[in-house]
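Assemble and predict.
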Amino acid sequence: MMIDCREASRLISQNADRPLPLARRVQLRLHLFVCDACTNFSRQVRQLRKGVRAIFW
Amino acid sequence: MQETLLAALAAEKSFAGRSNLRTWLTGILKHKIVDSLRRSTRERAPEVELSADDLDELFDASGHWREPPQPWPEQAFEQKAFIQALEKCLAALPARTGQAFLMREHLGFDTGDICKELAITPTHCWVLLYRARMALRQCLEKSGITR
């Protein structure tokens, strides 16, 4: 049931492109709750999006 | 368009009044468009199916990050240094990876449209996007944007 950072990082990226199935979303949420590195990565994915928008404005 | 008119002239003899001129020309134009799309897909370099396996090297045997992502300044995207570093890192991405990423993040395409545009499978598409994000975060942290 618990996923590792490798898998969590893939889910974080996919989550930025399409809605995850409920079970995956729960797994990711549980992982993020205990993992600072993946929480950082999740924020970075959003910051990259904002950065790209800032470049092309 | 020129091709359409040339094709029209060349085929004029076969236009035996079976439909009006406009329908006939429109028909030719449609065929031309389909032709050119087919051609551009065919001419593209053959695409090797990507997997994300090589990205596994970024993690140790127990699945932890070898270089854990760091917290970035909250409003990093408002800082000139961050934007400049991001531009550099984007330019350093492999062509396909960069295209897919910008289609997604700049043009706001959904992955279905990106797949069609790049003639790749949905799996390939998300691997490219994942690859882009992993490469960009590494590249940006190397350029020293962490707080």
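Residues 2-43 of chain B form one domain.
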